[in-house]
């Protein structure tokens, strides 16, 4: 069972001189449930090298490990799965390559797209950007700061886990969970924090508190 509560998307450019494996190790200690290798500013070779370090750490900790965009890297790193955007391979093509047991996520901002992704075989959805964020500079206006209300609409429309992403911090994560999300995905809230371990712990505490019943998120 995947613990979606706190989902780290890596980004060395925001890690204040710390290596990505260092940040991931701290996040694991803080209670992260999923790590997504992003590293947009690195070459595929560099992501592969960093990815193997993360693969070993996550495997040992029992934390899910997925790769952003690149099905080939997910295969090469023996990752648990891949997270796909609008410009990446379709979900069925990724499924054919990665197999029936792989985790395949899909980024969506609208209810219709969420339903389509679920019908295509996605295992979970990344919904956002929930709040204003500078992590992506190319987000269309109607996909920017969609708010917890859109998260709620999508969570009510599908039967697969939903993870809110975009501008989320310990201070604003609770409404995302209260809207029906199974977890929150962050970059800067952990990687740019003074103490990534403590930042992860605080996010986890906020998510658990907003969930209220102490139960794990949907499988």
Please state how the strands of the largest beta sheet are arranged side by side.
1-2-3-4-5-6-7-8
**How is the CATH topology named?**
TIM Barrel
Helix fraction by DSSP (H/I, runs of at least 4) = 40-55%
Q: Give the total of beta strands.
A: 8
Describe this structure in words.
This protein has 219 residues and is of the alpha/beta class. The protein has one domain: Aldolase class I (TIM Barrel). Helices cover 41% and strands 16% of the residues. The protein contains 9 helices and 8 strands. It has an 8-stranded parallel beta barrel, surrounded by 5 helices. Helix 1 (20-30) packs parallel to helix 2 (44-61). It is globular, with a radius of gyration of 16 Å.
Give the tags.
disordered C terminus, alpha/beta, TIM Barrel, 16% strand, 8 strands, 8-stranded parallel barrel, single chain, 219 residues
Quick structural gist:
The protein is α/β, with parallel strands linked by helices and 219 residues long.
């Amino acid at each position: 069972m995947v613990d979606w509560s706190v989902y780290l998307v890596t980004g060395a450019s925001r890690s204040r001189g710390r290596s990505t494996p260092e940040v991931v190790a701290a996040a694991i200690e803080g209670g992260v449930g999923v790590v997504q290798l992003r590293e947009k500013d690195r070459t595929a070779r560099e992501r592969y090298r960093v990815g193997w370090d993360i693969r070993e750490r996550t495997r040992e900790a029992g934390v899910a490990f997925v790769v952003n965009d690149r099905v080939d890297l997910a295969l090469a790193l023996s990752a648990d799965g891949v997270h796909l955007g609008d410009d990446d391979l379709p979900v069925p093509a990724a499924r054919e390559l990665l197999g029936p047991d792989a985790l395949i996520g899909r980024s969506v901002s609208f209810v219709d797209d969420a339903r389509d992704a679920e019908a295509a075989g996605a295992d979970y959805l990344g919904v956002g950007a929930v709040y204003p964020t500078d992590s992506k500079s190319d987000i269309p206006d109607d996909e920017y700061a969609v708010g917890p209300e859109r998260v709620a609409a999508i969570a009510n429309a599908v039967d697969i886990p939903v993870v809110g992403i975009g501008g989320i911090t310990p201070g604003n994560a609770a409404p995302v969970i209260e809207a029906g999300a199974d977890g929150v995905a962050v970059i800067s809230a952990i990687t740019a924090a003074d103490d990534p371990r403590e930042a992860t712990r605080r996010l986890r505490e906020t998510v658990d508190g907003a969930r209220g019943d102490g139960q794990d998120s949907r499988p």
